[in-house]
Q: What sequence folds into this?
């Protein structure tokens, strides 16, 4: 282990990588930091996550050397302050394919981090040209290498969970040709022990088994799966005993690795073992592992191709693509297409690598009007170019192969949709399908009937499906405007077509672009000869405007014949009988202006309902009343305002008194009894009335 070339200075390397990610994803809002973040992102795109990670790890010795000079006097943290600052001062990101440590003019190589890089410009530096003897102190060539010191931090390669341990161990068993894996919790020498045993080929080279970065697998497995030789180090820091029967040698060996041996590199005694088949690993079982063990075993067994037993019970196995609507084969992968009516959790696992599942951003395509959606999941069988980020293998390497897989998934989704013969995809998706070689018909030519929005929801309420008849696209406006427009066009089809909700994502389809469309609404109000004004959302009202009846109200719609017409819009005027104009505070009905045409026949109840739809939304502040209390209060105010306007103030007051009596007093009066009430100047007199009055009230 001490002679291994594949060891890392992990603590510094991990800090470097975290700092690079932070500088990429969370730049301070100043131009220099934002420019740096964009350059770092270009490096990720240019050379991929895995290659860039190795480049960053190569800066470990330079950071350690720089830290050694200031560690005693540095007052801030190493990981959050020193390392990001070192990257900012020393790394040149200008070439996305070759981020390098820049040579600091006027400083020694140690001050610059002790590591050179490609020179940004051509030719010789002036200082070097003037003093060639000084330059001869540098070596003629250099190479990338990995610091020996990182073996002392190997325990932090993985998160130390029982899930990581089981995942990595089971993957090794599967590669060794195991047909059965047994996991058991046993007691040994008064210690709780986790034992994992398989019936595979065993390990013929124990030294490679414990050499970081040297997997020792066959050429076929190395080609198809790209094993990194890091999985066993998921056990680092724990007391582990390994026994293995090497089938090709007909002999078995055993080694015990103490917790300190993982990072010290000390020699370990290899002794003969009586194991007759496969590999057996025993790990001291801490309480944190013990409590999570049963669920962890279920999780790793779910999609594993090798049967797994936990104690005497075989664990359930499932096909990763079992619920797929359709499956396609592609370059060593099986792509399953799924249909979902709900939003897909971005953390959902999307790729299965022989039982190891990882989340990954793959295509997820929705209907344009929020109906169904399609997404892909992938079972990797033999696709060596699709790689997992090392060492923990919990995400995919972002490379050209993954980009090609995404395109293949997207094409598979479109082919699945094409088999159905109809769809509601956006025009952009339709064009994308065509670019991927999949021919789709246009989206089904129907839309939902238009319904005015309410102030409370401020969202579209879809009406019935409209198809096979003339349609006109309605413009979205403020809820009170839409409510008044809806009332004006409610009778018959004054526009010669059924109003429908627009779906902007359908723009580009021939049938959709051919539809006429309302571009906007306004109301023209006449209050007398020469007293005319127009009202639309956010327009200034006349200063003397008050609620009441006016001579006439007309709804004016600007209508365009088609979506691709260059002709000016035609203004269509329709008679309207009512207009509601909220004030600054919509829910305060004292500020709402209600204008009624001379022929308006709306009832007080109808007007109160219209006011609620046009103006009511509840206050969500923590100090506000409950929703139902706010709604009841608004309804009462709306009924009173409607009664005042339509019946007069006296009738409105009487109706409000009746309402208050019904809600707050009537339950106190005995059944079949009548009470006569007289109230004046805050004084109330009440007395039981005769039976005739009770009968009259009951009849009423």
A:
């Amino acid at each position: 282990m001490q002679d291994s070339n594949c060891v890392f200075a992990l603590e510094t390397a991990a800090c470097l990588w975290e700092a690079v990610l932070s500088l990429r994803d969370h730049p301070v809002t100043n131009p220099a930091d934002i420019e740096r973040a964009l350059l770092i992102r270009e490096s990720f795109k240019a050379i991929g996550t895995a290659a860039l990670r190795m480049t960053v790890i190569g800066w470990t010795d330079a950071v350690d050397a720089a830290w050694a000079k200031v560690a005693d006097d540095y007052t801030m943290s190493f990981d959050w302050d020193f390392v990001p600052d070192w990257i900012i001062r020393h790394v040149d990101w200008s070439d996305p394919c070759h981020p390098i440590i820049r040579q600091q003019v006027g400083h020694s190589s140690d001050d610059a981090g002790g590591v050179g890089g490609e020179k940004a410009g051509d030719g010789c530096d002036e200082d070097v040209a003037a003093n060639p003897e000084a330059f001869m102190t540098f070596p003629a060539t250099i190479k990338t290498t990995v610091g020996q010191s990182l073996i002392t931090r190997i325990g932090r390669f993985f998160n130390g969970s029982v899930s990581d341990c089981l995942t990595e161990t089971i993957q090794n068993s599967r590669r060794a040709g195991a047909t059965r894996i047994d996991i058991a919790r046993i007691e040994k020498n008064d210690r709780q022990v986790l034992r994992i045993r398989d019936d595979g080929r065993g390990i013929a080279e124990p030294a490679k088994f414990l050499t970081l970065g040297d997997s020792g697998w066959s050429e076929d497995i190395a080609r198809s799966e790209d094993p990194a030789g890091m999985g066993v180090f998921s056990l680092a820091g724990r007391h582990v005993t390994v026994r293995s029967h090497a089938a090709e040698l007909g002999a078995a060996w055993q080694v015990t690795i103490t917790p300190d041996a993982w990072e010290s590199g000390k020699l370990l005694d290899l002794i003969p073992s009586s194991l007759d088949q496969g590999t057996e690993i025993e790990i001291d079982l801490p309480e944190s592992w013990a409590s999570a063990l049963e669920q962890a075993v279920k999780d790793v067994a779910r999609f594993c191709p090798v049967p797994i037993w936990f104690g005497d019970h075989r664990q359930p196995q499932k096909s990763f693509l079992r619920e797929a609507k359709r499956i396609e084969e592609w370059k060593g992968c099986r792509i399953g297409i799924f249909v979902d009516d709900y939003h897909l959790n971005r953390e959902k696992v999307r790729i299965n690598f022989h039982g190891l599942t990882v989340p990954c951003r793959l295509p997820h395509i929705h209907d344009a009007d929020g109906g169904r959606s399609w997404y892909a999941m992938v079972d990797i069988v033999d696709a060596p170019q699709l790689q997992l980020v090392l060492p923990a293998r919990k995400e995919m390497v972002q490379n050209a192969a993954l980009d090609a897989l995404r395109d293949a998934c997207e094409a598979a989704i479109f082919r699945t949709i094409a088999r159905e013969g109809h769809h509601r995809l956006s025009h952009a998706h339709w064009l994308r399908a065509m670019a991927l070689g999949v021919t789709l018909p246009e989206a089904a030519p129907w839309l939902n009937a238009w319904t005015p929005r309410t102030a409370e929801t401020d969202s579209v309420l879809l009406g019935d499906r409209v198809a096979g008849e003339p349609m006109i696209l309605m413009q979205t406006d403020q809820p009170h405007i839409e409510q008044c427009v809806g009332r004006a066009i409610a009778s018959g089809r004054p526009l010669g077509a059924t109003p429908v909700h627009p779906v902007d994502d359908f723009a580009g389809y021939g049938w959709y672009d051919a539809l006429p469309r309302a571009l906007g609404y306004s109301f023209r109000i006449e209050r007398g000869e020469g007293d005319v004004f127009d009202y639309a959302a956010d327009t200034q009202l006349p200063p003397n405007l008050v609620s009441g009846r006016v001579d006439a109200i007309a709804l004016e719609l600007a209508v365009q014949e088609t979506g691709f017409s260059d002709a000016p819009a035609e203004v269509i005027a329709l008679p309207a009988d009512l207009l509601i104009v909220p004030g600054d505070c919509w829910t305060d009905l004292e500020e709402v202006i209600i204008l009624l045409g001379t022929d308006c026949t709306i009832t007080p109840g109808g007007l109160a309902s219209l006011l609620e739809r046009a103006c009511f939304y509840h206050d969500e502040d923590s100090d506000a009343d409950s929703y139902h209390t706010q709604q009841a209060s608004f309804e009462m105010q709306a009924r009173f305002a409607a009664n005042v306007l339509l019946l007069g103030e006296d009738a409105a007051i009487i109706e409000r008194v009746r309402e208050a009596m019904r809600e707050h007093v009537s339950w106190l009066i005995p059944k079949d009894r009548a009470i006569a009430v007289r109230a004046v100047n805050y004084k109330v007199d009440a007395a039981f009335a005769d039976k005739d009055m009770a009968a009259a009230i009951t009849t009423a």
In short: The chain has five domains: 10-149, 157-314, 326-435, 447-614, 627-699. The CA atoms of residues 42 and 606 lie 61 Å apart. The first strand starts at residue 91 and ends at 92. The two ends are 100 Å apart (CA to CA).
